[in-house]
Write a structure and sequence with these properties.
12 helices, 2 domains, 35% helix, hypothetical protein PF0899 fold, alpha/beta, 15 strands
Amino acid sequence: MIDTQQMRDRMLALNEEGGQILAAAEAAGNSLSSQQRQRLDAIHDEFNTLEQQVAAADRSRILATPQPLPPGVRDGQVPPSRRASAGHSGSAILAGGAIGQDQRAVKALADFARRGIPFQSSMSIGSDPDGGYLVPVEIDRDMQTVAAGFSPLLPLAKNYFGVTDGFRPVVVSTLPGSTWKAEGDTRSVTASPGLTQIVPQRGGVAAVVQASQWVLQDSDPVAYDVIVRGLGMQNGAAIGAAIISGAAGQPAPKGLTAQTTAATADGSRAFGTVEHIATGGATTAPSLDNCLTALSRLHPFYQAGAAWLMSPSAWAALQGQKSSGGGDFMWQPDLNAKEPPRLFGKPVHIDPNLPAATTAGALSVWLGDWQRAYAVCHYGSPILIRDDVTVKGQVLIYSERRVGGNLVDSAACKAIKTATS
């Protein structure tokens, strides 16, 4: 049987070693030697291999454990929580799934909150009484599920879990060269593709849930729900705001609206600059014509997985647009459908963190293949600290997680800007 605890300990050691290398490089003027760079690459490769092995073992163990089915799920169906379990170490977070389906996790967190009992070795991925207990994968998965409900972009974006500070997503910034040849022509080496490392801006997001001793005396599921939902909601709100607009003056992900944009087409912009489509007026809200232009400007390579992100006021402006003749609404989405409404065949997600549609210079509507356009990095594992001293009769559960984010492929998304040009 795979000893996942040893692999997790090794992952923590690799993470610490990578941080030491980066700290040494920063002390030397942010210059990495070739030997340091090679070592970071080796750390990254080994960490990814271990992460995949641990994730596979965790999923096998979780799925093999008999659990009660959530209400409304018939025998033979896959419960939402199990469908979402692969999201912890995969590339996406699934929003809307059930939480608290792993009974061992429910009991472990309740025991920790009530009496400070450390997570058992079968549930823990390492603990340090001085620095807090690292959150087990099952509990973190449920917190991520709740958080995803507060940020439309978070489950749409590419999510990397358990990465080190030295992790840098790599994207092809220029296409490889090619040439046509006749049968007898001489073949020569064509230009290699340009590769660019993306440096995610990052920081630690902290959240505290206060639960009374009376609440914690209730059933294990009640205590679990209060803590996981409370921390998940706080994390989701903070991360959701940061990956859209950043956090002014704070160490946080670089949001969409903080990116550089230009009204120039693909092939003529600098890599890292997003193309925007102007609404035509300094305070003119986006129109359906603007949206159609954005869709036509997005390369077909990205269109299959594309989705809209828009602010509530932009959504209202687009829905309120009427034809010049009969006065009928030009866009009539099915608001009763279970799936998100669609505009020009692409799903629409409303994000309140995006700016108002009539604010000068606002980027209130976006279209993109977000798995390719934006990356969210989750460093290590979040920690939990229990405090039953600060407020008598109350237990404070403190959580902190390191999160980074940045635009990855600037050609994979388009923005509509409230501007004349």
